[in-house]
Amino acid sequence: MTAGSSASDSRDDADTKAVRMLRSLARVPFAILRGTILAIVHSVWYLVFYVLCMFRPLTGLMVLAAIVMVPMSIVVFAHPAAARGMPFWAFGLMAIGLVAFAFGYALFVDRITPPGAEDPFDRYRKRR
Questions:
Q1: Are 121 and 56 in contact (CB under 8 A)?
Q2: Are 45 and 113 in contact (CB under 8 A)?
Q3: pLDDT tens-digit series, residues 71-83
């Protein structure tokens, strides 16, 4: 033993090491649980992103439908009986709503993109 140290100091060091080891051992199941939960959340994030990417072409069709709605509202304005009681301005509102939804959907999907992920269906879209 060194000068100034006693047998109780070495016993305290051993007790401290044992307590530290037990604490570390008690943390292992919680670390495994945390890792499992993070892996599940990350997997669901990627899966949701890829599923939402599959529906992006449908939002392009919504814009096309909105373009068709504008002349339709003009026809309904000229011939109200063609819409069977539906007002002409409802078609204009539907067109605005479809375009707003399509752009909002595209922005939302871009916003939730996981780090390092790319749109897997981008290769099927028309390039300009």
A1: yes
A2: no
A3: 998 988 898 888 8
Q: Which residue is listed with tokens 């599940």?
A: 40
**pLDDT exceeds cutoff 90 at 86:** no
Dist. CA 111–CA 106, nearest whole Å: 9
Q: Do 60 and 99 touch, CB atoms closer than 8 A?
A: no
109 contact partners, CB below 8 Å, separation of at least 6? 49, 52, 53, 56
pTM listed for this prediction: 0.70
Q: Residue ranges of the alpha helices (H) in the chain?
A: 7-54, 56-78, 88-111
Torsion, Cα of 73, 79, 81, 83 (10° steps):
-10
